[in-house]
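Morning. Coffee machine broken again, so started the prediction first thing and wrote up yesterday's gels while waiting. Chain of 371 residues, entered below exactly as on the submission form.
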Amino acid sequence: MARSALWDFVTSVMGAGCMAERLKPTPLTASPTVSVVIPCYKYGKYLPGAVKSALDQPGIDVDVLIVDDASPDDSAAVAESLAAADPRVSVLVHETNRGHIATYNDGLRLARGTYVVLLSADDLLPDGALTRAVALLEARPDVAFVYGFPQYFEDTPPPVTSTVRSWTVWSGHEWIKRICQRGTGLVVSPEVVMRRTVMDELGGFDPAHPHAADFKIWMHAALRGSVGRVNGSDQAFYRVHGENMHLTDFKGEITDLRERRRAFQTFFEEEGSAVPEIADMEVVSRKAQAAEAVRRANHEIDCGADDSNSLHGEYSAIATELWPPVTRSYAWHAYQRRLAGRSNRFERGLSKLSFDLRYRLEWRRWRRFGT
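Came back before lunch.
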């Protein structure tokens, strides 16, 4: 790869500058209220840890609402016992199962704090995470929501990194541009603290997008204010396990790509009049998603998947639907060579290396800068 091509690749992934304010953090001086909504379905065993993590936040006034979606196990009983032990905890139990989006929204409608957090029952908040996020929100009334780095864990969360290096604030439009350029989301979910007035205006999560409702709502929220990020510290612990909803109900990257495509389309249809340069931003998002789809098609073949279990054909179909000129790209021609059996082992190995390198660089950029 020529030096200029390599530089273009690295800067496209790592970013060559970003229109954002980098700020020195200031301490929290008030004691604002934060409502933490914890939706639960068959996660009763995780509830005590989630509730404790939400309440152990210094310098702010926290209340917790557990919404149990008619769990068939003892989740409701666990929730009731937690509420009986602490007046800051309350419980709403659905008589019939209504699904995760309705569970989210029922809880958020009852939230009365100045700020709101949606925390899955199997996730945790690090000590001081809400305090750190609220400090930014209090310092910048223009910010609609704040996020940070979510640390993944399986059984036991790692030690908390609590030192805040800096704050970053983007205009909402600039942050949405970052999402369009990546073609994917920048937020997991439990690390977000949002102004309740913004959530009230949005009316909660969109039930028409059960897989990508969170991805979609962050973009809508970014049109209601600036977007802030706490840099350097861990802002949430996201549990990875076999019972995760995203692993059991919505399997695979192909589903994620399809649902992101649909969420982007709906967002642009709903907010087109509010977003400057809407047509250009939509084109950028389509190009980014199409390029990702072709990379994944090549990666499927490079990893040895045979035609009986490979998704490369679905990826390529999505790519051409999103952005027909993708067929003029180098990656598409490389895909055609693979289909025709004209690619050699060296080319496929180099492609796998490039795929992995791109992922690592993107992850490092997201970890450090949030975009």
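The domain at 33-248 is CATH 3.90.550.10 (Spore Coat Polysaccharide Biosynthesis Protein SpsA; Chain A). Going to sketch it on the whiteboard this afternoon.
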